Amino acid sequence: QEVAWAPCGEDFLQGLECADVQVPLDYTEPDGERVTVAISRAAAADLDARRGILLTNPGGPGGHGRSLAGYYQGTRVGAVYDVIGMDPRGSGGSSPRLDCESEPLPFYSRPTNAEISDATRSAIRYQRDCERADGDLRPHMTTANTARDMDVIRAALGEETTNYLGYSYGTYLGAVYGSLFPERLDRTVLDSPVHPDGIWRDVFLRQAPAFSANMERYTAWAAEHDDVLGFGATQKEVYATFDATSDRLREEPRTDFPGIVYDSHMFDLELGMLSRFQQNWDLASEYLGYFVRDEPLPTEFTSEMAALAEEEDTGFTEDLMTAVVCEAAWPRRISEYRADAREYRENHPYGGGASWALPQPCTFSGLDRVEPPVELERDGYSEPLLIAGEFDANTDYQSGVAMAARLEGPLITVAGDGGHGFYLPGGLECVSDAVEAYLVDGVVPADLTCQGLPPAELDTEPELDAEELAPLTDQSVPVGLRL
């Protein structure tokens, strides 16, 4: 098929070219029904130095990927590669797009027994609605099929091989592609890897303990700055302050933000999210202090946060994420989920990790899986370069270590950092230099440690800044990473 590039019509894709590629819905019937995958391109700036295409994925699963192609314009990578973004099948500009037509799943950080039952009923309803609305499509929304779509894109663009840059879930997608098409894969960067085993429930359950590790760091720092913050002079006192605040919000939710009931679950979620970014602990503490002291947030700040939320499109599709993670088997015994939920609500309530202990839609899937998850291996393509943050809570550090061992590639460790996704414009120079030397020059480094940003210095209370705070309280980072 010919790829017909044209300027992208959407504002958030300004400066990129867009096109559609047709792929089989079911690869066991390659001449059967087709679906459309929307792609984008930021063409190599230096045609004389061009060395092919760089397929990218921002994570999710379910993250739109076309905007990611524009992130590398002006970099060494953008000079030599046609950077290709992709909205995976079922998402974004691809069609048909999954739409469960169901109510969102509830979120609980410290679920009571009654809330565990409510979450169970909601998961049953959600899965039933999804199967009714998208039953013909959902079984084919798998990582393996997305990898096959990538190979169709490669061939349609006339390239013998492709290079790859994936974040978070995108690291698993890249590893699956390499396992299926090793002879087609050249240079590969896997940033913030998922664990190669335990797809998918065990992967998600790893998040909650990692959020707890960040809370240990943050509460210790807060205790050291009690003279400014007033959260408590010891780590134990700081935890007690936050837990008391959560208890109060369970009984008396707040409505500072238009249209949002800010309860204990929301507070626990944001507390964990903010604990990841040590360079912003000063700003996080200023924000959290309003809830600790039970003071109303400034109206100007809440209005700015609401406006940012309305403008924001992280490019994440919950319906597609649910479909993809159902590619693996999930436990069927509800007693297992109940036991895990009780453990997590006691030991790991922060950051949202405990919600994964609850029954999920996949627990109740009535659809037949079209194939088992791909067994990951590296046999026939060159060493990938991996990057993992020491305190990453979305994909914990040991997951990066395990993926590096499985694929036998060097690992860049970002020490003392709870971020998620490290090779980004304006990021750590140590990481950028190593990644660009690898992708552009072919220099494969030995295992490397890059120092993350230091903890915030706190002399006086900072001013609230909505534009700076908003990305820190989301489950994603600038390129829309969810897992």
Task: Explain what the structure shows.
The protein is α/β, with parallel strands linked by helices and 483 residues long. The chain has a domain at 6-98 and 140-199 and 375-451: Alpha/Beta hydrolase fold, catalytic domain (Rossmann fold), CATH 3.40.50. 38% of the residues lie in helices and 12% in strands. It is built from 16 helices and ten strands. The chain has a ten-stranded mixed sheet with strand order 1-2-3-5-4-6-7-8-9-10, sandwiched between helices. α3 packs across α4 (169-180) and α9 packs antiparallel against α10. The chain is globular and about 60 Å long. 48% of the residues are buried. The model is unreliable at 475-482 (pLDDT under 50).
CATH level 4 superfamily of the domain at 6-98 and 140-199 and 375-451:
Alpha/Beta hydrolase fold, catalytic domain
Distance between the termini: 33 Å
The helix content, as a percent range, equals: 25-40%
Molecular shape: globular
Unreliable spans: 475-482
Return the CATH class of the domain at 6-98 and 140-199 and 375-451. Alpha Beta
Structural class: alpha/beta
Number of strands: 10
Beta percentage is: 5-15%
Mean pLDDT: 94
Order of helices and strands: EEEEHEHHEHEHHHHHHHHHEHEHEH
Radius of gyration equals 22 Å
Strand order of the largest sheet: 1-2-3-5-4-6-7-8-9-10
* Tally of helical runs: 16
